[in-house]
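S1.2 Input.
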Amino acid sequence: MTTINVNGKDLALDDIPDDTPLLWVLRDHLGLTGTKYGCGISQCGACTVHVDGAAVQSCVTTLAEVAGSNVVTIEGLSPDGSHPVQKAWKEHNVPQCGYCQVGQMMMAAAMLKTNSDPTDEDINSEMWNICRCGTYPRIRAAIKTAAKEMQQ
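S1.3 Output.
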């Protein structure tokens, strides 16, 4: 049995092998389908979640690696969409196809915890998630808007 906290709820997970990727624990066992499968090799960022506050790729992070940790998914970032990053994403109409956007928002939220006033260069280096639609200028603008709101 593995114990983790997901979105503020302590869970004791039985009958799930320790080497199961966190992505599949979240989606298949817990029904939290906001986190997306993209590449399976930690190259695209679509599966980004927070583990103890840090952005991690859940496709390559095993259940055993997060035992005793606090995991936050997009569903737990703000259930009503009121997190500054979520609001900025809507304000700037960031998504095109939308598939990568949950991972983008989770990466941005983690970045803004440690860098409250990111420059374009900071965003370019810290936001390595792939957006096949190329919405990077809107992502950058949304991050700056969210940063300003979080500073207030």
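S1.4 Remarks. The helical segments are 22-29, 74-77, 84-91, 101-114, 120-126, 136-151.
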